[in-house]
Each structure stands twice: as structure tokens, then as C-alpha cells.
Amino acid sequence: MATAHDPVDMPTGTLLQISPRVGRVLAPNPSPFTYTGTQTYLVGSDDLAVIDPGPADADHLAALLAAIGDRPVRAILCTHTHRDHSPAAAPLSAQTGAPIIGCAPLTLEDDGPRADAAFDPSYIPDRILADGEQVAGEGWTLEAIATPGHTSNHLCFALVEENALFTGDHVMGWSTSVISPPDGDMADYMRSMQRLLDREDAVYYPAHGDPVANPRRLVRGMMGHRKQREGQITRFLERHGASEIPAMVAQMYKGVDPRLHPAAGRSVLAHLIDLDGRGIAAEAEDGRWRLR
């Protein structure tokens, strides 16, 4: 769940080289959910892959084209299809001739209260990457790592040559990810986090926030945070009996920006659905939740 961090001033539209093979361009879409905005990554030097081209914003598209210059783009890759990640794929493909590769398309009518994280109905990939499949160019290789949870179609991309992982929204550099049913799934998210914990990546490049230099420590902390939140929910239900989600959010998210409470409710719902699946909690006909 997003914390009370506020977006900070960061330069948008400028290519920042952060490793020998990786540059990033920040989109001008800061918000309480996107932090400083969505970071589009350019991988390679002589030829490129573009990861998470970002929102449908003319200034951001122009900045990407300027950063690309006359270099060929071999692939445009999307980690998932929320509207701050994939809508620029089609116009960027039209300008560069590069194929759109990566996650499967996904559109839901009910995707929670976050307008900035609605699904992108325009996303049409030329190729869907299965777990373990690779895309390569001059001096770079990207491998798809299936990480469902934040969305069912979420992929991370491992940069083999630098032992780095582009984590999209699965692991962010400033906050935990919102898990919003019906597509967001807490059980899947925790399994995906365990999968990352079992890896040996040296650095994460998230779509929001700074690079993560000690990724396994962060993943352990995020998994512990989810377990703590689950414990809060079960203790709340033990003390108060059958309860509605807004009452839980008001108690458990004191001090958090109230604008984030609706999204917090989605994550609480995701925990409750997971607890239901494990036989620990159940929803009554009146919409209240209780322990079994």
C-alpha cells in the first residue's frame, strides 16, 4: 500500500544514464500513486529496448524520441497494462517501427478507485512473452519473469548482462504496490515476491522510485509488511467481530493520506480474499467480514 510520501520535483523529459546499458526518462505524471511519475527505461547503446513507454502524453513521447535519436529500437516492452505504463507503446511503435512485446493484454471494467491505474484498452502486443522467454540486442538480453499479483499479467524483465531486474510496479522504490481485486491477487503477489527473494539480482530498476541497491532486503521487508498487515486484520476482527472494510482502513491506516484510503481498502480486501481462501475469514451476506 502506498505510504504518505508526496511526489517530489524531479526533472522530466531528460535522459539520465544510470548504468552502462540503462538510461531512464521520467514521464510528467506525478501523483500520490505514481510518486515522481512513471520511469521509462532505455536499454542498450547501439540499439535499444524501451521498457514501460508510459502514459499517452505528447511531451513524454517527444522526449523518448529525442533520447532514442537515430538508434534502432528492437523492442518496446511493457510490464503490465495500467494506463501510466503502456499507452505510449502504440505511438512509439508507429514512430520507430519497433514491435510491442511483453505482457498479455488485459482490460477490466472494475479495477478499483484508482483512475490513474485503470487498464489500457488500446494495448495490442505484437508478441506476448512467456515466463523465461528472452529478447536480445547488441550487448543486452532481457528475460521475462512472470510476477502476477499487482496485476495478473505483470512481468518483470531481467537484464542478464548486468544482473539487474526491471520490476515495474511489482516492487517499487518508494512504496509497496496496491493489490486491487478482482485482478490483483494477494496470494499470487506473495508467491511472486518469494520468487524474487529466491533470485540473486544485484539491483532493481522500478517504474516508480529510485533504483534498489539491496533488493533482497527490500523484498523481505515488503513480505514482512504484508504479514504484519494480515495480522492487523485478524486482530481487528478478533476484537471487533464482523466488520466492514472502511472501519478497518480508518483504524489501520491512521496517518496515511486520506486520498489513499480507497486504495488501502482494495489492499485490505485482497488480504481478506486471501484469508478466505485459506479458511481463516469469510464475508457475510451483509458485506461485513468475520473470522471463521
From TrEMBL:
The keyword Hydrolase applies. Residues 37-208 form the Metallo-beta-lactamase domain. Keywords: Hydrolase. It comes from the Bacteria. GO terms for molecular function: hydrolase activity. SMART domains: Lactamase_B. It holds the Pfam family Lactamase_B. InterPro entries: LACTB2_WH, Metallo-B-lactamas, RibonucZ/Hydroxyglut_hydro, Sec-metab_biosynth-thioest, WH-like_DNA-bd_sf. This is Glyoxylase-like metal-dependent hydrolase (Beta-lactamase superfamily II).
